[in-house]
Amino acid sequence: SFYRNKLKYLDFLRKRCNVNPKRGPFHYRAPSKIFIRTVRGMLPHKTKRGDAAMMRLRAVEGIPPPFDKKKRMVVPSCLKVLRLPPPPKICSGGRLFPEGGWKDKKN
Q: Residue 95: helix, strand or coil by DSSP?
């Protein structure tokens, strides 16, 4: 599953403008930017309502300062292990994105 997702992700990163690559499409490497682009594809971002929803969206790597001091909790009904079928064919972004060029700022 990881290998297949890696090939799909690297194929996506290879897509660029043939005439002038500076014109796009732009492929961000940071997980927060990838998440924002994914959510943008799910919203009607060309309408006022979708644009307002995109402006309310905020994504960061790690835990931002006001929330890093709070106690973390686990909601058992939302655990991925319980909700997916027995052999889950998934891979985490933490393993996939460094293969695509994301340099982790913490290490």
A: helix
